[in-house]
Design brief:
single chain, alpha+beta, WYL_dom, about 325 residues, SH3 type barrels, elongated, DNA-binding transcription factor activity, Arc Repressor Mutant, subunit A, 4 domains, four-stranded antiparallel sheet
Length: about 325
């Protein structure tokens, strides 16, 4: 939209001393002539834009021009900026311009203090690896949300079963370090959550849908929504050589010293494949003391793993 381009040009000019018309044209995928028409429109709106020729020239704002920022305090702007940095780290660059807009309304005399505020807390949600494929899926799903079109994909569940899904997307959810899609699943005829990393062959459909209001209460990602079944108390023992793993994973109040440099920890999770994987990730640093059913299952899984590697050797 033209109004978005005009505002974006103003923000860029506020944040940069000079910018070339050709650079703006390339950035917004329009002609240089269109950019100069935009500059005339901006000037007509009362925003003083100057054009200079020669080396070091270009398009610029009159010295000292700033946007009004009376609506928000410096701390509120810094909090918003910090939140945007965290969201941007998880994929996509669409928040970059908004961050520039926020920076633009900070007077030069306060810019150093503002930068200090925005670096006191850094939130990075970016996962390790898979950034390329994940960003592609996020971009496609954001487009589908904007256009109100359904998407289809092959979905691999926690048990390895593959089903073809057609979904009307409602929202993207960042939970921990994982992205999820929440929408109406045609197969289940109800709202479902789908982990983006479990999607294959994701495409937009031609079918459109009418989005209804999404209730803000009772949404499935509030609380411990991934865990199903009745929690089982599980007593773990971390030997002294594995105490650092316990300290990294559990709160200090959950760690009970064993008198030999290690810890006892009691956790409460449903007994399922997620719990087995969680415990196996600690390797030989942990021993499950209770219940016997989990000890037996982990012993069986460890034996199967050992047999597999022995066969390869």
């Amino acid at each position: 939209m033209k109004i978005d381009r005009l505002l974006s040009i103003v923000i860029l000019l506020i944040n940069r001393r000079h910018i070339q018309a050709k650079e703006l044209a390339d950035m917004f995928e329009v002609s240089v002539r269109t950019i100069y028409r935009d500059i005339d429109t901006i000037n007509a709106a009362g925003i003083p834009v100057l054009t200079t020729q020669g080396a070091g020239g270009g398009i610029s704002l009159m010295e000292g021009y700033r946007l009004d920022r009376n609506v928000l305090t410096d701390q509120e702007l810094a909090d918003i900026f910090t939140a945007l940095q965290g969201v941007s780290s998880s994929g996509g660059t669409e928040h970059t311009l908004l961050m520039e807009k926020i920076s633009s309304v900070i007077p030069p005399s306060q810019s150093a203090a503002f930068r200090s505020k925005t670096t006191q807390l850094i939130v990075d949600f970016s996962p390790r690896g898979l950034n390329g494929p994940l960003e592609e899926r996020l971009t496609l799903l954001k487009e589908a949300l904007e256009e109100s079109v359904a998407v289809s994909f092959e979905y691999v569940d926690a048990e390895g079963h593959i089903t073809l899904r057609s979904v009307e997307p409602y929202t993207l959810v960042l939970k921990g370090q994982a992205w999820y899609l929440y929408g109406i699943c045609g197969l289940r005829q109800d709202f479902r959550l789908f982990k983006l990393l479990r999607m294959k062959s994701l495409v937009k459909e031609t079918r459109t849908y009418t989005r209804e209001d999404l209730p803000l209460e009772g949404l499935p990602w509030g609380g411990d929504w991934q865990r199903e079944g009745s929690p089982v108390p599980c007593v773990l023992h971390f030997a002294a050589e594995g105490r650092h793993l316990a300290e990294d994973r559990f709160d200090a109040a959950e760690l009970q010293p064993d008198g030999n440099g290690g810890y006892f920890v009691t956790i409460h999770y449903p007994e399922d494949s997620w719990l087995y994987g969680f415990l196996l990730a600690f390797g030989t640093s942990v021993e499950v003391l209770e219940p016997e059913s989990i000890r037996h299952k982990l012993g069986k899984l460890a034996a199967e793993i050992a047999a597999k590697y022995a066969k390869q050797d």
